[in-house]
Design brief:
heterotrimer, A alpha/beta (about 325), B alpha/beta (about 325), C mainly alpha (about 290), A: about 325 residues, alpha/beta, Rossmann fold, 8-stranded mixed sheet, 4-stranded antiparallel sheet, about 25% strand, B: alpha/beta, 10 helices, 12 strands
């Protein structure tokens, strides 16, 4: 059954610095189904942005793909040349990068920036067709046609972000990767932009990977959520079940630390720090901070176990049957 | 009621002529030292909240209105009084990295304070004092002292900043987005330190943020700012559980709840496209308000007393009594 | 200690300009250092040796029309020219730093005056000013006097750039915190700002030195320099005066040009390298 559009298999991406190799992504396996919204959540340094960039083929030295595969359909993206990857970008996989509002060219009009991408993939396209596509794409993100003529500095933060979304979906890609698309926006505009992305995803039947650190945003937007810690995947599951019954201690602590509107005055941060990704200690990387740690945790890296649509990498579930 | 810091009808305009921006518009807020609260000042970026912080710290001066320190106009303070002001009013800033001079180790920020206030007379005493201060905010001295800022995490850096503010034994702390650049799991510990500060040392705190959830968690009173003016103010339960101003309702309704079964609320959502503010004599939120009435475009709404201690600047509450003299919020 | 050396070596791989620049300047210093041990300074005076000799074992760089040993002249000239550059450069940076700091930190009327003067003086052709001064002082100009003439306007550009740097630093978080901690303004300038400014000052110094050397060579070649001293610029003057080019005395006009080129390339690369060190945004790689 191949409704899996995108598959990451044991992906490893390391950054080679003077201090040693930083294991930013170390053996991550996950898949994205057609039409699915997958969330990739974790704190700074967990590897989620690296994964987003790797899928787009935008990792540059000193970063390098050390191992694993990224399968888009049958094609292994890790083996493609730059030219081949470029043909896939925007066409099949679109990216809404972090700080996207600052990636707009300040001296070009909006329409020229949208056209740029379209023309790069199809030299034959006529001017009239281009113009109608620009309007179509702007309307689909809720912007009026007049915006096409404007320059980036004439737009508000939210509008700029929506232009970036428009560029990302302009060629109707199958997969859209959004890397913290709303981090610089305030809460009202954030909701708007996320709802726009959501509507588009449904209209195009595309799949979305949302990478970020805001659990609240994940709860509002995604269908399935993958939790990352220090370059590894610790838990994956349907978002409702994951929130209702988090399996991995890190997920449990993370959820408990969120200031929700339920209990005032109660604070539950996670003590300790994320481990070094250069001198990686043996065993589970969460061991020093885990309240349920056992002896085996400091010796063996827990494997990702599967059961009932949920996956978790934790020794607590080694012998248990997953319900 | 003696307030330690008070902004009275303060307006701050940046730039001049045609490109001037009114960052803060006829804003009044008093922080009192008795039964010191943690007050929240909530607003989006561009609402003027950082300007208010800078005004209160004396880093910038108001265009109109006064900033009062212990009842006296700040600009008329003597040098000695000003030095006392700088000691008693401290701040915790948003960027946990920018507050450290990259040339020095993190000890430096603590050393300056200890030296300036003559808190220690020997090296050993100084070291002991630093270690105690760090333990008081929940970090291990051996992991932080002797390190450069870039070697520590954002959460650690921010907590060292809190420790530094504490060493000054201030009478008032302004925390400008103290946790927005810190990882989620570390936020709770920093917020906990701030609450402890307030309860144990009886220091009033002004918590400036755009994040309603942390404000709810930490504060007693909350003031909502929109384009440089207060739109709603009151006890935190009142304002967040029962918001009366359409803008507050919009804010509360846009919070992404960490609860998948509770998706973003339906209901009338205000228009978001930012349009330039209209003339001076209308409600600033009128261009975006789904409940706008003719009177909203004619006159600025005054503050109406919706409940005990809960004031709203909106004609939807017209039937309520107007707050006298512009003194809003619990006294 | 070992780690630091290794780290420094690794850095030079990322910053080749710095390494090559330092290398070239070290070569010149070695030339002068070793040379001055073996070749006596007396040979730089006129009529000290037979004139117009082609390079030989006794006189490796030959001699000029006035009977000077050109090897001695090159060795002495390098050090003299460098001295002029360093004196003028330091004076320029010293004044520029003070003015730049005061102007940017205190702002207000002081800033307006200093900034205004800088803007006006930048438009004045500095070489012209120096020529006028040198002509007025004609006769009896020493090497030190030359350095002072060249330093008249050497402070203008440094003031401007240092002011710009200080203006940026002034708004940073750690300066605010220092103010909140009760540090006085002079304390903040010296303890908080200066250390961060040092790499930048070093780069500005190198630029100022290069500019000073260039100006001094220009003035000397025009005949407005210290006539008695065998600086590099004066050698160029004599080369022009005696038409060494036409006479085919390549051993006279080639060496000073080569040394000047090496000097400037070295200073330029050093300045580029320091720039990259001082400015993290320009730094390549992670």
């Amino acid at each position: 059954m191949n409704t899996q559009l995108l598959k990451l298999q044991e992906l490893q991406v390391f950054y080679h610095t003077d201090e040693g190799a930083v294991k930013a992504v170390d053996g991550v396996t996950l898949s994205l189904a057609k039409g699915e919204r997958l969330g990739l959540v974790g704190e700074s340094g967990c590897g989620k942005s690296t994964i987003a960039m790797t899928i787009m083929g935008l990792i540059k030295s000193p970063g390098r793909i050390e191992g694993g595969k990224i399968l888009l359909g049958e094609v292994d993206l890790t083996k493609l040349s730059e030219g081949e990857m470029r043909r896939l970008r925007l066409n099949q996989v679109g990216l809404i990068p972090q700080g996207a509002m600052n990636s707009l060219n300040p001296v070009s009009r909006v329409k020229d920036q949208i056209i740029d991408g379209m023309r790069a993939h199809n030299q034959q396209i006529s001017k009239r067709e281009l113009r109608s596509r620009v309007y179509e794409v702007l309307e689909s993100v809720g912007l009026r046609r007049g915006v096409a003529r404007m320059y980036a500095h004439e737009l508000s933060g939210g509008m700029k972000q929506r232009v970036c979304v428009a560029i990302a979906i302009s060629l109707h890609p199958q997969v859209v990767i959004a890397d913290e698309p709303t981090s610089a926006l305030d809460v009202v505009v954030q909701r708007e932009v996320m709802e726009t992305i959501g509507q588009l995803q449904q209209q195009l039947g595309a799949s979305v990977i949302l990478a970020g650190h805001d659990m609240g945003l994940m709860a509002q937007f995604v269908d399935r959520l993958a939790v990352m810690y220090a370059g590894k995947l610790v838990e994956i599951g349907p978002v409702k079940e994951l929130f209702a019954k988090p399996l991995h201690p890190y997920t449990q602590l993370l959820l408990a630390s969120l200031p929700g509107l339920a209990q005032r005055g109660v604070f539950r941060g996670i003590p300790g720090l994320t481990p070094s990704l250069v001198h990686v200690p043996p065993g589970c990387l969460f061991y020093p901070r885990c309240p349920q740690a056992m002896e085996i945790c400091s010796q063996e890296v827990p494997a990702l176990r599967e059961g009932d649509g949920r996956q978790v990498a934790c020794h607590l579930y080694d012998s248990e049957v997953m319900i | 009621m003696k307030s330690i810091i008070e902004l009275r009808n303060v307006t701050k305009v940046f730039g001049g002529g045609r490109s001037s921006t009114v960052a803060v518009d006829d804003f009044s807020l008093a922080v009192d030292a008795e039964s010191p609260p943690i007050k929240a000042l909530v607003g989006e970026s561009g609402s003027g909240k950082t300007t208010i912080a800078l005004l209160m710290l004396g880093f910038i001066l108001p265009t109109k209105g006064e900033m009062l320190y212990k009842g006296q106009n700040f600009q008329r303070l003597s040098r000695r009084e000003r030095r006392m002001f700088h000691r008693e009013v401290q701040a915790i800033f948003q960027d946990p990295f920018g507050v450290y001079n990259p040339f020095y180790k993190v000890d430096h920020v603590l050393d300056i304070v200890i030296a300036k206030l003559h808190l220690a007379s020997s090296r050993a005493e100084r070291q002991a004092l630093k270690e105690e201060a760090l333990r008081g905010v929940g970090i291990r001295p051996e992991e932080t002292l002797g390190h450069y800022p870039h070697q520590l995490s954002g959460g650690q850096r921010q907590r060292v900043t809190v420790a530094r503010a504490l060493l000054m034994r201030p009478k008032f702390i302004i925390a400008d987005e103290p946790v927005s650049m810190v990882d989620a799991s570390l936020r709770a510990t920093i917020l906990e330190s701030l609450t402890k500060l307030n309860r144990e040392l009886q220091i009033p705190i002004l918590y400036i943020t755009h994040d309603l959830t942390t404000a709810y968690h930490v504060c007693d009173d909350i003031t909502i700012l929109y384009q440089g003016s207060i739109v709603e103010s009151g006890g935190v339960e009142q304002v967040i559980k029962g918001p009366k101003h359409p803008y507050t309702q919009l804010l509360v309704g846009s919070i992404p709840w960490p609860d998948p079964s509770r998706r973003w609320g339906e209901g009338q959502v205000a228009v978001v496209d930012r349009e330039s503010t209209g003339a001076d004599n209308q409600c600033k939120f009128a261009p975006r308000c789904p409940f706008v009435m003719p009177i909203c475009r004619e006159r600025r709404p005054p503050f109406f007393q919706a409940d005990n201690g809960h004031a709203v600047a909106c004609y939807l509450c017209e039937d309520k009594p107007v707050v006298e003299g512009g003194k809003i919020g619990p006294c | 200690m070992n780690r630091r050396i290794l780290a420094a070596m690794r850095y030079t791989r990322r910053n080749p300009a710095l390494a090559v620049g330092i290398g070239l300047l070290l070569a010149i210093l070695l030339f002068w250092g070793i040379g001055s041990i073996f070749v006596p300074f007396s040979r730089t005076s006129a009529l000290s040796v037979p004139a117009s000799r082609v390079p030989s074992w006794e006189f490796p760089l030959g001699t000029d029309r006035q009977g000077r040993d050109l090897l001695a002249v090159m060795i002495a000239g390098t050090s003299l020219t460098l001295r002029i550059g360093l004196i003028a450069g330091f004076i320029g940076i010293f004044i520029g730093t003070i003015l730049g700091f005061v102007s940017a930190y205190y702002r207000g009327a002081v800033d307006t005056i200093i900034r205004g003067s800088v803007d006006v003086l930048l438009t004045v052709p500095s070489l012209l000013v120096m020529i006028l001064v040198a002509v007025a002082l004609k006769g009896g100009l020493t090497v030190e006097g030359m350095a002072l003439v060249v330093s008249i306007l050497a402070w203008v550009w440094p003031t401007r750039t240092i002011r710009a740097q200080v203006l940026t630093m002034r708004e940073s978080g750690y300066i605010r915190v220092a103010q909140l901690s009760g540090m006085s303004s002079p304390e903040i300038i010296v303890k908080e700002m200066m250390p961060n400014l040092l790499p930048y000052l070093a780069a500005s110094l190198v630029n100022a030195v290069a500019a000073a050397i260039l100006a001094s060579i220009g003035l000397e070649a025009l005949g407005l320099g210290p006539m008695e001293s065998p600086t590099l610029g004066m050698t160029i003057y004599w080369v022009l005066h005696y038409s060494a080019l036409l006479h085919g005395m390549w051993w006279w006009w080639a060496p000073p040009i080569i040394i000047i080129v090496i000097l400037f390339v070295g200073l330029f690369l050093l300045s580029t390298g320091l720039d990259e060190l001082a400015n993290p945004r320009v730094r390549r790689s992670v």
